[in-house]
Design brief:
By secondary structure, the chain is mostly helical. Helices cover 74% and strands 0% of the residues.
């Protein structure tokens, strides 16, 4: 297993370098310009000086090389310095990845927005998994029952209807009509008392519920299909013939093998927690990473968009590796050495 992990990491390094160059090249060749939002009265020579101050006067390969050094060397060293007090090199003169729009370090902006995204999108994904797995198991075991029929209808609706529609519907019903929950997420709220905690739960309820419905709908269909594929296999009949109870057969033998394809879906979905739910965050005004990415795209803030997009790619590769490792834990027949 250790050799497999090391081998996958060694393969991932050049893969991520290629991905980072592709992302950088696409953003660099895009027609957006950081001076495009300036007033038309700004002279052309002033625009050119602004472009040069942002480093756009240098060739693309030079700018890409500087970004690689800043991302893989300077930013980790800065995190060690600020977060753990470990100083390596000249911390004062170390260049960092700066946002063109705010002139703030991009990593600091990401760290600032991450808690909001984790609270909303992370909880919705967790609740989606906790809801989807039992629904998928019961629906498969009681195939074509009323529970399966209702579950199939709800999950098909939840997966088919876009989140911007369910989000707007939730706002109209629970905020405008019933006035149970606030329609706008207040990111400045500090949870330092019981009343503020209740307000925090209320403002999180609708975005978490909307995303949890979408995630649970998708995962429960995969869980049901995977359980059905395993229910009639030989090892299940063998376990039943040995006198094992239905609960043991279902929850130990069938569930363990059925989770293998579902684990892939769950692992590859985890990076979406950090990337944020762009549409849902816009609807409920959640000041998270999804909204930060939208702001970066609208303002042609290439360092911000480049760093965020590459971080998402790193997370996808990482959790793909984690899913492969979990395969070996769930199914002893899988060997990597």
């Amino acid at each position: 297993m250790i050799h497999f992990i090391i081998r996958r990491i060694l393969i991932a390094i050049p893969t991520l370098l290629v991905i980072s160059f592709i992302i950088f090249a696409i953003l660099d060749l895009a027609p957006n310009d950081p001076t495009g939002n300036l007033p038309m009265t700004v002279p052309a020579e002033v625009r050119e000086k602004i472009r040069e101050s942002l480093g756009l006067g240098q060739p693309m390969h030079v700018r890409f090389g500087k970004w690689l050094v800043q991302f893989f060397v300077n930013e980790p060293l800065n995190i060690l310095h600020d977060g753990f007090g470990i100083t390596i090199g000249d911390a004062e003169n170390r260049t960092r990845i700066l946002s063109w729009a705010t002139r703030s370090p991009v990593v600091d902006l990401i760290i600032q927005r991450t808690p909001q995204t984790l609270w909303v999108v992370g909880l919705s994904y967790l609740f989606g998994i906790l809801i989807a797995i039992p629904i998928g198991i019961i629906s498969a075991y009681k195939q074509y029952s009323w529970f399966d029929q209702v579950g199939t209808f709800v999950t098909m609706v939840g997966f088919s209807v876009p989140t911007f529609f369910t989000g707007m519907l939730a706002i109209i019903l629970f905020s405008v009509q019933l006035k149970w929950f606030p329609m706008i997420y207040d990111t400045t709220l500090e949870v330092n008392s019981w009343d503020n905690f209740v307000l925090q739960v209320k403002q999180m309820f609708m975005p978490v519920a909307v995303l949890a419905l979408y995630n649970a709908s998708q995962l429960s269909r995969f869980m049901r299909a995977s359980i059905l594929d395993n229910l009639n296999l030989d090892y299940v009949r063998t376990a039943r013939s040995k006198g094992r109870s239905e609960q043991v057969v279902l929850l130990i033998h069938v569930l363990r093998n059925s989770l293998i394809p579902v684990v892939t879906l769950i692992a590859l979905g985890i990076p979406t927690i950090f990337s944020g739910a762009i549409i849902t965050e816009q609807i409920f005004r959640v000041n998270g990473l999804g909204q930060l990415l939208i702001i970066g795209i609208e303002s042609a803030d290439i360092p911000l968009v480049q760093t965020l997009t590459f971080l998402f790619a790193v997370l996808i590769v990482l959790f793909n590796l984690i899913a492969d490792v979990i395969y070996g834990i769930l199914d002893p027949r899988i060997r990597y050495d």
